[in-house]
Acyl-CoA dehydrogenase family protein
Amino acid sequence: MSAEHHLFHVTREKLKRFIATQVYPAEKQLPAPGDDEGYGRTQAMRHLRAEAEREGLFNLFSSLREDEFGFSTVQIAELAELTGHSPLLAQDAIGSLNPDAEVINLIRRFGTPAQRDRWVAALAAGEAASALCITEPDVASSDPTEIRAAWRAHAGKFLLSGEKHWALGALNPNLRLLIVLAITEPEEKRRRRLSLILLPSERSGIIIGESATVFGYGNDARGGMPHIRFSDVEVDENDILGPRGQGLATVQSSLGPARLFHCMRLVGSGERALQLMCQRLISRTIRGKPLSEDALWMSRIADSRIAIDQSRAFALSVAAKVDASGLEAAAVDISAVKAILPEAMARVIDMAIQSFGAEGMSHALPLAGMWALARSLRFSDGPDEVHKAVVARAELKRELS
């Protein structure tokens, strides 16, 4: 076994043990969705983070640790699956919860030395929090080139105006930075008009409203998802992340691997759901027989196992293609994974909910939250329809060539 593979094996076993012995017990200690205290400010959450740091698992998926670990895309995907057994809690505990984890990677990759010095260490340590401000209320999210938020020149600087909603992270009490996708090059072609702007939260003119919910979940662990209005917020060229006019390309560069890892976390959620479903069916009897021996439920168990194994194999094969040939070569395959896997895992989780009856929909179990995450991923990082169109265009191109 090579040193690199040994390190991965040790890390995987350590993460598996941490989730089983630390994360699962903490699930029942956290506040219910909508509780004012929120995930991140509970004693249980602070304890988990301290334990993760002691185990060497904190910021595990961050590019800050690339030199230390150097894991392949396949290996990171396998670790991501483990965190999906308790998706929000496990990610938060090891410091890999978006938006901060994604923002750290973006700034390290595209930021100037001054931008990296100002933001990376503070975000990684949890001293500062960030928010992603991309989606707009009056624009079809499937076509980001229609974004309307824009800056205009004023007295040697620029004034940013516009509206965003589903601004992930913007209600975190430690919010210090907003990453805003906006028009800075109005005369350019559509895909070259937008830039990413690093906007310190103390700037005047930033008006943060109420948070949206997803099936009743407020996403407190990530800092909510509020509506934000930018009213003549002063910015300058030093606030641009990456090349001007390349905001879409900058964002897309981080989404490919992120989509795979999101999907692999759902595979982990599917595994946990199937485990809970089997335990439930074994413990419940009807007419003197365990429900696990009922033909209908045996069929559902089999369907779930097949769907999980198919999904994992597909996602890992695409991750291997990324490792072998690069992200661009695997772009269509990533869209295929994204189009099929969230829907498949949502069905598995839904069957597990059905096995528990009303309890399955409650906060007493992690299933309802898992289902909400799986369903929301059919919008996040691009809706199903967009990813299926990518796959279809590639297929038609092959036939026409």
